[in-house]
Amino acid sequence: MKKLFAVALIAAFASNAALAGAECKAQPKDKWQKEADFKKKLTAEGYQIKKFKVSGNCYEIYGKNKDGKKVEIYFDPVSGAPVKTDIED
Description:
The chain has helices spanning 2-18, 35-44, and strands spanning 48-55, 58-64, 70-75, 82-87. By secondary structure, it is an alpha+beta fold.
């Protein structure tokens, strides 16, 4: 019974780690790119944005890239650099 509990506990922590978001450096909001401008930039690069949100200190999008693959991407809101990217295979 203890062994089964330990396995279930490990599985729960592993699944939570897989769902963890990205860590963006905390920066003053007045230095962040404006959301509307950032969305326009991404659209010009070929992204189709289905959902855009602020996640902690990051901008996060759900949508499709220029190849039509589903993406979830976290961006540094100041530099615009991707911090974490998940692309459908």
